[in-house]
Predict the 3D structure of the following.
Amino acid sequence: MNNVRYAHDEGYADLCFAENNKFLTTGGDGYLKIWKHFNDLDPASIHVGVNCQALVFKNNIIYVVNHLNELRKYDLVTYEFLGVLVSFLSPIASLCINNSATHLICGAFNSDVHLIEIATLKSNLISGHNGPILHVSCDPLEQFFVSSSCDGTARFWSLQNFNMVKVMVNLHKSSSNFYDSISRCKIAWHKEDILIAVPCEKEVQFYERATWLLKFTIHLNSDIVDDEVTSICAFSPDGWNVLIATSKNKVYIHSIITKKLLFNFSYHTDLNICALKWNPSNHNEIIFINSNGYMVNINPVIWNDFNESSISFSATSIVKSNNFETPGLLLFLYIKFTRVDY
């Protein structure tokens, strides 16, 4: 069953899951909302500013940026305002936080990336893009982070010395305005620290972490129209599948083992999906929010088509066909093919 709900006034919006199925949203009305679940009739609302389009959550703390370019923090439990960490000269498009909750990464409209040390509030400025930042995300092993931009590139940086270690170009048509970008270019890191999913034109490219080698590509099916591109990627909580959203509000789920299409959904509106998240506590719930402030709940039923007689063969085939070389990736595949649920 798919449900649609009003969440915020029109404008760019963001969404992230917290804990115990709670999730957070922000939008064009300047409110931060805390939802106990999708059908929550009375979510907690905190007025953050005139508008608010980027947030992130870690360890019961919500970090959010308002129209004054203030990076604010709030307590998830008490909703208490805990202060302003830092103010920026340019609006912030995207926030992420590392697993240890020591650093915040903030991508700005002026093409800069700010790395904030939370304990000391020391800020490091990282430059290199030639257009507004679209998205930032952190490596689960905390060695790298990535920034994507309206300039059509994604740049991978060392979290230790802030040097750029890899650049990917021509991922989508370049633009000079965050809101006009055809792609959100949201890149996903696999939870097992082995793969990175990168939206690129009408496909998703999968790279091996740290070696940056292209391992395989998933091409979307023939109903993709000429001016439609892949926009957002997210791995399933169990690591089996990848969730892909396009610039025309189509949502696909593919197996990363067989590459087969497992599920698709189309939301008939011209308004772009701003954020798309898989519930980490419920594999059968996906929520996205669009630029009109409406959020949609998708409940896919997914059956990975493996059977006992094909497990050994399939694992060997996947390793050979994708030329996987790292021990961690081989271990991941071994675990996956020896823990099949029927």
In short: DSSP finds two helices and 28 strands in the chain. The chain has one domain: 3-306. The longest helix spans residues 311-322.
